[in-house]
Amino acid sequence: MNPQIPHGRPFFHPISLTVTLLIGVIAVGLMSAVAGAYESEHVMLVIVDGLRYTEGLGDSNRTHVPKMHSLSERGAVVEPFMNDRHTNTMRGIPAIWCGGWTEVITFKDRHCGGCENIHTEMPTIFEYYRKGLDRGQDDCIYVLGDVGCPWKASLTPEYGTDFWPLYHSVGMTDMDVWEQATDILDTFHPSFFLLYLSRVDHFGHSGSWSYYTRSIELADSIVGMLWDYVEADSVYAGKTTMFVTNDHGRHTDDFSGHDCDCEGCRTVQLLAVGPDIRQGLVSNIPRTICDITPTIGELMGFSTEVATGSVMHELLIQDAAEDTHPDSGAVTPPDAAAPPTYTEP
Predict the structure, then answer these.
(1) CA atoms within 13 A on the CB side of 47
(2) Domain that holds residue 39
(3) CA-based torsion, 235, 237, 241, 242: positive or negative
(4) Is residue 228 part of a domain?
(5) Buried-state track 25-42, b at ≥16 Cβ within 10 A, e below 16
(6) Phi-psi region at 171: left, alpha or beta (left = phi > 0; alpha = psi -120 to 50)
(7) Helices of type H across the chain
(8) Residue 114 lies in a domain
(9) How many CA atoms lie within 13 A of 143 on its CB side?
(10) For strand 267-268 and strand 81-82, is the pairing parallel, antiparallel, or unpaired?
(11) CATH code of the domain in which 202 resides
């Protein structure tokens, strides 16, 4: 992870933010009606930190991601899918959560021994989900490794701590996290579940190509196991959509680093699979990580009123069938125009 955290005053003026929130409240009723058109009752979001696209689904041979490739044939991918601004974890993860490039506010967290921590300025998907659908904390769970001091809820009025998820931050390796995840899923069966896998980025920074690629293969296997779990579970089977993405890539010419505007850092992947996702779709409509949260809101029926991203209607069966969105037909064969692969340095 890149430790840089920007400083600055909040991005939204209080009056404009309030007006935006009021408009969002009006939209909630409409969103609920739309959600009835979808079969998805549950959504799982997997973030694989720091996977360069050329070692992921951008590899024409899918050498390190056979499970994700198999799932992509049953679902949809977006090419190109981009981090279009800050290619580091401290900004990329909040952009995914918030559906927009939020400011992050730093503070000394007395609950973590005075360590530096962050709030987001914009509300997060956790807050949108819990408030919009009136769900409890155990129905909105974030599973990740032990990070010591978890990030905090947004500073947006009417959202914040009351709508924060159940954080389960235990273990060091991605396999540790997966084992914790299965326990959480067995116990709670949350309808919104976020799984964060950090070790691809960690081993990328190590400079060891073999460690980096092996960590990708492990993350790929975990994604496969998660979907196998979904399909075998009576609560989730046939009613769950899964998204898999990354917060940033890695330098085009040096896999050990990131945090610039090169193609390798900016290009990431988006895989979606589930009952409402078009099968075998490769969408060529350019999208960014900020579009994930609005799309999940569309599927589940909650408003993401402050988000600046937009719904990826072109991925959704219902929208394609109704042909109400001009982007819905952008399809190319799965193996067409595959980017070149990288070889070991």
Answers:
(1) 24
(2) 14-329
(3) positive
(4) yes
(5) eebeeebeebbebbebbb
(6) left
(7) 14-35, 66-74, 89-98, 125-133, 174-188, 199-206, 209-232, 263-266, 292-300, 317-322
(8) yes
(9) 27
(10) antiparallel
(11) 3.40.720.10
Q: Examine residue 250 and state whether it is found in any structural domain, yes or no.
A: yes
**Domain assignment present for 230:** yes
- Is the C-alpha dihedral spanning 145, 89, 304, 12 positive or negative? positive
Q: Round to whole Å and give the CA distance between 158 and 321.
A: 36
Per-residue model confidence as pLDDT tens for the chain (345 residues): 443 333 333 344 444 554 455 544 444 444 544 456 899 999 999 999 999 999 999 999 999 999 999 999 999 999 999 999 999 999 999 999 999 999 999 999 998 999 999 999 999 999 999 999 999 999 999 999 999 899 999 999 999 999 999 999 999 999 999 999 999 999 999 999 999 999 999 999 999 999 999 999 999 999 999 999 999 999 999 999 999 999 999 999 999 999 999 999 999 999 999 999 999 999 999 999 999 999 999 999 999 999 999 999 999 998 766 654 444 445 554 444 343 333 333
Number of domains forming the structure of the chain: 1
Q: What is the dihedral of CA 207, 92, 48, 168, to 10 degrees?
A: 120
Return the amino acid letter for 80: P
